Target: Glycerol-3-phosphate transporter
Amino acid sequence: MARLPAGIRFIVSFSRDQWYRAFIFVLTFLLYASFHLSRKPISIVKGELHKHCAGGEAEPSFSGQSSSAGHRPPRQLPDNETDCGWAPFDKNNYQQLLGALDYSFLCAYAIGMYLSGIIGERLPIRYYLTFGMLASGAFTSLFGLGYFYNIHSFGFYVVTQILNGLVQTTGWPSVVTCLSNWFGKGRRGLIMGVWNSHTSVGNILGSLIAGYWVSTCWGLSFIVPGAIVAAMGIVCFLFLIEHPKDIRCSSTLSMHSKGYENTVDRFRLHKPVLHGEKSRPLDPEMQCLLMADGKSSICPSHVVVLPGDSGNSMTAISFTGALRIPGVIEFSLCLLFAKLVSYTFLFWLPLYITSVDHLDAKKAGELSTLFDVGGIFGGILAGVISDRLEKRASTCGLMLLLAAPTLYVFSSVSKMGLEATVAMLLLSGALVSGPYALITTAVSADLGTHKSLKGNAHALSTVTAIIDGTGSVGTQQGHPEPVLPDRCPGFQGPISGLTGS
Model:
């Protein structure tokens, strides 16, 4: 008999459950990357909504010199375009208007996040996430339709951002909960550090897709990402598996749990003995995943039903109950400041690069992706260090302390040339996104399965939403009007919108 090819031997070396875990890892990665892909276009299009003025009532965007109110260029402009961009963003107050769009999205996102975690605990993740992705795709595309239908109402764009911010809150608690169901705590920092690079990948793809059409038809910069999010929502509905027991261990556990799912009882493993080894408490979910082979299961056959401490411990945890988990408030406040800086870069970095390096919107959008490239390495590095040291808080604190002086000198160093700008973007991205990624993934998962919960597994979504929601409150402090270089003659000193000062 011929020997199997090396590739086939590699494939069959993994069990069925390992393949499922890899599949869920990749699927949730792509699902949330599409969410971030749809958030990026607004930052790319800002440079097109308000451009360098060739004349008209508004002042030049970044030169600081006024032009004659009655002067018009000889060329004929389309009905939906003015000398300084797209009305109403072509006036002197464009920074306030563009900032208000960001503020509308972030405010709705922060408020919705607190509600999303509570709702997500009580609904099937697959249905909840699918609804959010379809709705997000619709509202993202709706913003772009303003271009094709020649809409110049500021209220239209604000309402669209508010609705989009609300429905996007369905994403994060859902994907973190699903991934945590499949992976234990052993190397959670590394696994989630790699997985959290979906944020940077989504931002990069969003920048490239939006930048492709920004100068010719900026409406497509929103419609195409919106269609991608909606398509991924359909994929989510068809393929997402919320929990490993849904495909392997549900039949084993259901014999004991059917009569107790909605009662005041909870389940705990009763120290099974496997193959003569000394008994040791194991995580039931991990037993379902770590199979001896693809056919046999080592899921425990002996489960002891223990009465709950008080009330229904299998029900979703309350908001105040989640706040009482040790560490939730502390890490929420830490994320408040880290996310402020991260989202200021997300929404304003391309426009800042345009003003400093005088690049067009497309090139500025492409250059801004380097911040996200640095974020990929920063997230992985933070996960590896925290796993090795087993100190999540110390890792976050150290990286944030290093990020502070880096951001302070960002604007000064970035004026030294393109090479310096590239280096600072990579370094800033790593130091800012590292603790941000660690808190929103591994830390949130650890706290959502904290020992103080005494077996209640229905807290992860709520804890994740509280931490990320508090971080989203911080993002509003950098809006709606960060100081751009046209308000800093000679481009001296740090840019407050980027440093978070």
Remarks:
- Confidence is low (pLDDT under 50) at residues 55-81, 249-313, 486-501.
- The first strand starts at residue 265 and ends at 269.
